[in-house]
User: Fold this.
Amino acid sequence: MTRESEIERAIRKNHPALITYLTAGDPSLEDTKAYVEALDRGGADLIELGLPFSEPIAEGPTIQAAINRALEAGTTPEGVFELVEDLDVEAPLLVMTYYNMILQYGTGADPDPFVERAAEAGLAGLIIPDLPAEESGPLRAACDTHGLDLVFIVAPTTDGERLETIMSQASGFVYVQARLGTTGARADVSTATHDSLERLAEYDEVPKAVGFGVSEGDHAAEIVQAGADGVIVGSALIDLIAEGDEPAAALEAKARELKRGADRGTTMPEPEQP
Amino acid sequence: MSESTFGNYGGQYVPEALMPAVQELEDAYERYVLGNEDGFMDEFRERMREFGGRPTPLQRADRLSERYGREIYLKREDLVHGGAHKLNNALGQVLLAKYMGKERIIAETGAGQHGTATAMAAAHLEMPCEIYMGRTDVNRQRPNVYRMRMNGAAVNPVDAGRGTLKEAINETMRDWATTVETTHYVIGSVVGPHPFPTLVRDFQAVIGEEAREQVQAQAGRLPDSVVACAGGGSNTMGAFHAFVDDVESAEPCSADDSSGQGPREHVALYAVEAGGSSLEIDEEAGLAPNSATLSTGTDGVLHGAMTKLLQSNEGQIMESHSVSAGLDYAGVGPELSHLVESGRVTPVSVDDDAALNAFHRLSRLEGIIPALESSHALGFLEERHEELGDLVVVNVSGRGDKDLETVLEETEKRDLEAAPDVEVFDQ
Assistant:
């Protein structure tokens, strides 16, 4: 790819990067605007907005509940595009959603109108958890046409030829899924994270960011120390919104903690081999 | 490699973590099912005979034939062990999982028939088994919940959404994404990512293969029409598959046709969907008061495949409705979508009332209590028999014991011409 990727540039410039996820429209689009701006102030280098889909099979209970709240609030793709246009943040923005949402924008079963509108709104990329590399041809073509990155996920089960296929198509960054299962905050960093980062060590063309289960600064430190270029945090932030105790301030503080944790990971000594 | 799409439909739209598993399954499908490696298909067929009770009869329904003035044959899948065609697929997949070296079985269920069949197959083959079932369906299909538990399966109620099949599938996929290395997901219909739609169809194709032979032996020719109900579409594809190529032609299939069959007869294929209370969609409420996906759905991606879906203009999946839990699903198998799109299969629908009437009618006239799913196919027969030709095969996909509570409750609310006086049941 010859085009310079806004996402890749943001990650490399702010290395190690903090990538945050919020479900757009949870509990309303106005709130999401305030929360995204708080995360940006707190040091998020890249911000994912979840465009809610009624069947979020890759999400755990926390994000699933956030999606339900967003849908109940009437969140639509157009509403999310307008939110993106309205946001005043440093961090590039990505949309994370499911493939059916992309296909139905416009006249149906064609990804191009969605991507065109996403580019016009100022989005830098897309993450589609139910779109493996094998099925991504039409969406990747649309993303290339309109200058968006299509971020792929590498799972603990991905290796060999599949890893090769995915890495040859990746742009922006590679989303390293820290553990099998669904999204959701966890108390520790999975050993699968270390294994995955090891398998990916030889691929250095695209930055690698780790998500699924990351909730604390210490996790961020450990992940960066293990070789990641960034950490992705979602459910832990949504918990702060759901708790409802001055969410904007809490999100800003949490972003600072995570960013500091990630930074710490660059100066920590190598772990001793068990 | 086996073909992953049917025309524009099908594919493998699943989270990356599951891709190695669907590819492993694809490999196992080719080796064991298509290639009969290690005698897999021989063992499957033998178990279906001895444990499953195949072949099932193709019964001439005398009273229905008289009523409709044409020959009506019923393919009696209600006589398969467990009371429905579902065992054909469940036993096939659990056995395949065993051949693949998997240690645990999970499945989703709507009406409970697939869950029951999977629990039975898992007990029969000594595999631990967990079943996900929407809370609404747990409440309306209690006999099947008991049966699953009696066969040693854990039943996990799912509270999300309306608590029906769609939510149960979501939850099973989540479990599978966590345990994929040791667990096989026995998907219950011809839906999901490739190779499931093909694999399930091949296990169910025995329905149509038997029916085709039986009708030729018993009636001396192929039927004019085959009628089957369609939710996800596994009994539909099972009943249709052996007849798909029976398309009228004046000439033999090819110049060097040595089959000696000569011109083909035309067999019309009718997929009967649940018309629920109405075919209209309440876009604002996100509700389709029906499950008529083939008749009214639009193209999209759900549960691993591109297919026809009940969805809003913005791509949110609708909550569907049917009096029959087994048909209550907003998607449908991709191969059926393709066969409808290409004009080979005709999608039709009947509403809840017609299905309930047909339930009572068959029970009374023929001494067969049909599943509410199958009652839709029989309701279509009542409404449209004049269009179906002289010789009709209807697939009775399962028996209705599991539906008795629902039928009594729903019958009490309505004035159904074919229903007995249900008040006597309360005495």
User: Anything to note?
Assistant: The two ends of chain B are 61 Å apart (CA to CA). The longest strand of chain B covers residues 268-276. Chain B touches chain A at residues 8, 11-21, 160-161, 166, 170, 173-174, 177-181, 286, 298-304, 306, 309, 311, 313-317 (CB under 8 Å).
